Amino acid sequence: xxxxxxxxxxxxxxxxxxxxxxxxxxxxxxxxxxxxxxxxxxxxxxxxxxxxxxxxxxxxxxxxxxxxxxxxxxxxxxxxxxxxxxxxxxxxxxxxxxxxxxxxxxxxxxxxxxxxxxxxxxxxxxxxxxxxxxxxxxxxxxxxxxxxxxxxxxxxx
Amino acid sequence: xxxxxxxxxxxxxxxxxxxxxxxxxxxxxxxxxxxxxxxxxxxxxxxxxxxxxxxxxxxxxxxxxxxxxxxxxxxxxxxxxxxxxxxxxxxxxxxxxxxxxxxxxxxxxxxxxxxxxxxxxxxxxxxxxxxxxxxxxxxxxxxxxxxxxxxxxxxxxxxxxxxxxxxxxxxxxxxxxxxxxxxxxxxxxxxxxxxxxxxxxxxxxxxxxxxxxxxxxxxxxxxxxxxxxxxxxxxxxxxxxxxxxxxxxxxxxxxxxxxxxxxxxxxxxxxxxxxxxxxxxxxxxxxxxxxxxxxxxxxxxxxxxxxxxxxxx
Lengths: 157, 313
What we know:
The complex is a heterodimer.
Chain A: H1 2-24, H2 30-34, E1 44-45, E2 50-54, E3 59-66, E4 70-78, E5 86-91, E6 98-101, E7 110-115, E8 119-126, E9 141-151
Chain B: H1 2-25, H2 59-64, H3 70-74, H4 100-119, H5 123-139, H6 148-156, H7 161-181, H8 185-205, H9 215-222, H10 224-234, H11 241-258, E1 261-274, E2 277-287, H12 290-309
Antiparallel strand pairs in B: 1-2
């Protein structure tokens, strides 16, 4: 009898470990599922979009390349437990020139950029809170940054 | 008797659980076995220190995400008037693609051709190239990314350019996301290299007359960053002999790109908010001379030829 119970627990352990790996990747497509796509159909999904797990107090960043002649729609989405999340768009140069900061725009969740010269940007996301301690798994939430692009529409004649 | 029944119940539960686990990992490519496949999660995993945030991804993916997709590069072609059918890979090449690396490289190339057809509003040709992409994905064992509705959606939207563009883009990213999900870094990079080379080929060969400030020439110069990132990704495949010759040629292409001069539009980058949009201008941009343009055109033609021929038996 003991033998069978041990067997069941072993199998359950293997199953639960496998499930945990899947749980760690649960945020992979969060930006596709939760972020607001632009209403204008001409905007296309960019593979530079990202999602990751965050907890309160985390700051994290990634780079993205923007091409001259295109408009980029940047849309951020996250679990409301994270509070008002700040995101900054900076140029990837020595001075880290600030292009946009949503904390000065009422924590807006999306913005359109019109790019006239090719740029590499850094998107820095800051979740409010005390980030000094590593928090338990239950306090981790998904956060996504959706990037869409389209050719800048011509204006005037 | 009761004890025996209990034993079989346990066995059934075990079988059920094992099936569930294997289902979660089952969807692997037939070309994705043993050391032949580079696992994204195996690459420099010890360099990762953070447990949350974007920095938690592998170094390969960090660079990979910065490579623009064919749709993103070729969005500049938005008219049927400039479309050149001769720039597309012949459809009959499909039957020559017998080994997995060649299939993956050409899947990238055909995806770029599909993007070019769609942005140039070539509706029927788009359908042909979509079918080719699907067939190659089937051969690579990743056809599960195509659902039954996809072909129907193309036929129903055959005259709607925005929808077709979305389907072309979605097709590409479904393949990419699936490969990331099943942890097949090698096929991922092969497809990306094929797509990028074909995109530069189309971009450079669609230009008949060199005009220094034309949007296509500026776009071609701006692809410099992509080449740098492709080569960074390729560093993870230093031991892959089939790939080495293509990488060597891509390094020669980088030499041409490294010679491009830099022009300052305005000294500093400016950002102005207008109509709720942030307008970003200024800073440096690359310029390409006619001589460099011709060198680049020739070089990319050779790399593309190599991709077509590699592995053809």
